[in-house]
Design brief:
alpha+beta; seven-stranded mixed beta sheet; four-stranded antiparallel beta sheet; 8 helices; 13 strands; about 25% helix
Length: about 350
């Protein structure tokens, strides 16, 4: 003991004692924690954090997906270079290789969440679990010489039946609409309701679409190609969605939540069957509709598309639903008929549509 402090020799077997606080802890343990007086006044500081932090947003979306019947998986970021040949979008030249791999099967970092998810699906199917709904938050890794790039992603996987068969009802298979509904639920909970649809350019899908916010890709989803499923010995359809989580986090932090009263007056639904040119998109139909009637028209949806026999060449049929509502009173038949006639006239003039 000296004026400058206390010098101690630590026994060799006490490898856990490395800092001053470790010595203090031993002294308190011998002296007794109960013998220490505490202040009656407790002070604490409150940390200022954003509700849009990555882990908080992930927890919110994880809870939503769990309520929809999804299970979270956590797969290895290391994968096999043999998977590169399954898609032209994930080439070997862009893969991040491991300098000291444990083996060839785990020698590169994944460029997509798809293949690790398919491995999990194949593992479960081989153990008699065919009806699966998985989600995973993770990263993909890409080599853009001379730098490496990491992307945050959210992946959804659906395969098998929607429900178990029983005497009370028939078994129903999962389909593309189930995945699309889950994707829209995620975007809706994130506060990103307005986006546009484009055909997907990803070659991992036999059929699929992409959602964009302006020119920013949000999510690509669809039916995984059978040739890819065959590589994993999967003989049932798999539906996959890939969210660009970095882009989504950037949009979420900018969103403003607008609260309004629940409408006091009932809504009215009307349907139209439109015969359109094949090049006409639903986006155009939506724009024309809201330009024609922005006050009473609250929502427009597409619930059926038909192409084939009994239609003229170069034509397709859209079945479109319209939700009308007046915030100031109950709509009358006269108002509804007048609005629908106005919409029909605009579709005919602007899109060359015919009412079927």
């Amino acid at each position: 003991v000296s004026e400058s402090g206390l010098g101690l020799s630590i026994p060799s077997y006490r490898v856990d004692v490395q800092r001053e606080v470790d010595v203090i802890e031993d002294i308190l343990r011998v002296y007794g924690y109960n013998n220490i007086d505490f202040k009656e006044k407790l002070t604490a500081s409150i940390a200022s954090t954003s509700k849009f932090e990555d882990h908080k947003v992930q927890n919110v979306i994880g809870d939503i997906l769990t309520s929809q019947g999804f299970y979270e998986i956590m797969s290895n970021s290391l994968t096999s270079p043999a998977y590169h040949g399954l898609s032209q979008g994930f080439v070997e030249a862009r893969s991040v290789t491991v300098l000291n791999p444990l083996g060839l099967e785990l020698s590169v970092m994944r460029q997509t969440m798809l293949f690790s998810g398919l491995e999990a699906i194949a593992f479960n199917i081989n153990r008699k679990k065919q009806n699966l709904k998985f989600f995973e938050f993770g990263k993909t890794y890409h080599q853009n010489k001379p730098q490496h790039r990491e992307n945050k992603c959210l992946a959804l996987f659906i395969t098998g039946n929607q429900n178990e068969g029983s005497w009370t009802g028939e078994t129903k298979k999962s389909d593309f609409s189930v995945l699309k509904s889950s994707v829209e639920i995620v975007l809706g909970r994130l506060g990103i309701p307005h986006f546009h649809t484009e055909p997907t350019v990803w070659d991992i899908f036999s059929e699929g679409i992409s959602f964009y916010k302006e020119k920013q890709g949000l999510v690509h989803f669809g039916v995984v190609k059978k040739s890819i499923l065959k590589k994993f010995d999967i003989r049932q359809e798999v539906f996959y969605a890939d969210f660009d989580w970095d882009s989504i986090l950037g949009l979420v932090s900018k969103n403003k939540i607008i609260v309004k009263e629940v409408p006091k007056y009932p809504e009215v639904k009307r349907d139209l069957a439109l015969l359109l040119n094949e090049s006409t998109t639903f986006k155009q139909v939506r724009e024309v509709a809201f330009q024609a009637e922005s006050k009473l028209l609250k929502e427009i949806g597409l619930f059926d598309v038909y192409t084939g026999k009994n239609l003229p060449d170069g034509k397709k049929s859209y079945a479109v639903s319209f939700i009308l509502q007046d915030d100031k009173g109950t709509l009358t038949d006269k108002q509804i008929d007048k609005t629908m006639e106005k919409l029909q006239q605009c579709f005919q003039n602007d899109l060359g549509a015919e009412i079927r």
